[in-house]
Amino acid sequence: MSQRRIFKSKMYRKQEIKDVLKSIFVSEVIQPSPILWIVSPWISDIEIIDNTSGNFDFIEPAWGHRNIYLSEVIIKFLQNGGKINIVTSNDEHNNSFIKKVMKLSDSEGEQQNIRIKKVEKLHTKGILSNCFYLHGSMNITFNGIDINDEQINLETSKESIADASLAFKSFYKGML
Questions:
Q1: Do residues 33 and 77 lie in contact, with contact meaning Cβ atoms separated by under 8 Å?
Q2: What is the secondary structure of 67-112 as a DSSP string?
Q3: Residue 83 backbone phi and psi in degrees, to 5
Q4: 58 near 91, Cβ under 8 Å?
Q5: In what order do the strands lie in the sheet with 150-155?
Q6: Within 10 A of 30 (CB to CB), how many other CB atoms are there?
Q7: Which tops the pLDDT comparison, 4 or 1?
Q8: Average pLDDT, the chain
């Protein structure tokens, strides 16, 4: 299967989206892509991994048995050798996430591996690695994942990944 399409609403299939996000981020932490892109007009420090049972202690034992947030997963990804480009809008909503991830990257000595850019008019939404391209209507926020009706595509074909990579590099090259 090279493509998976998910239509979700507040009542239906939101756990499926959470499972996809958990899977792609866990895989990236374990074996980081050289560059991971997160492009979302609105982005929040959402819960990515439910580690209350300790099932993900092998990734980072220091996390403990609790919910793990996007900022923490990004830092572990960076510590394991990845680099990340985050593109978001100028909306004030994004500031707390950006401040938190920058503070964590500075304290862990990973600031050289993270690039964050704010774009005036951003509508594109996607997460791109060497192995997948997740895109659709969903912002990386609580509302995007838990509340709003959304359509999300997970593509794994080399053609889709290459096409998205070329587009992201072209759109944001002067910004990063």
A1: no
A2: EEEHHHHHHHHHHTT-EEEEEEES-GGGHHHHHHHHHHHHHTT-GG
A3: -130, 150
A4: no
A5: 3-8, 150-155, 133-136, 126-128, 35-39, 83-89, 114-119
A6: 12
A7: 4
A8: 94
Encoded tokens for 43: 């982005």
Interval 20-27 mean pLDDT? 97
Report how far residue 18's alpha carbon sits from residue 44's, in angstroms, rounded to the nearest whole number.
14
Query: Contact at 8 Å (CB) between 87 and 37?
Result: yes
Mean pLDDT for 82-90 is 97
In residues, how long is the chain?
176
Determine the Cα–Cα distance for residues 50 and 13; give it in Å rounded to an integer: 17
pLDDT at 168 over 70: yes
Paired with 37 in beta bridges are 85, 128
Q: Name the amino acid, one letter, at 56.
A: F
What is the structure's pLDDT at 92?
95
The first and second tokens of residue 129, run together, are 């690695």
List of domains in the chain: 3-172 (3.30.870.10)
Q: Distance (Å, rounded) from C-alpha 71 to C-alpha 77?
A: 10
Please list the alpha-helical segments (H only) found in the chain: 14-30, 70-79, 95-107, 142, 158-172
Query: Are the C-beta atoms of 125 and 136 separated by less than 8 Å?
Result: yes
Could you give the 3-state DSSP secondary structure of residue 25? helix
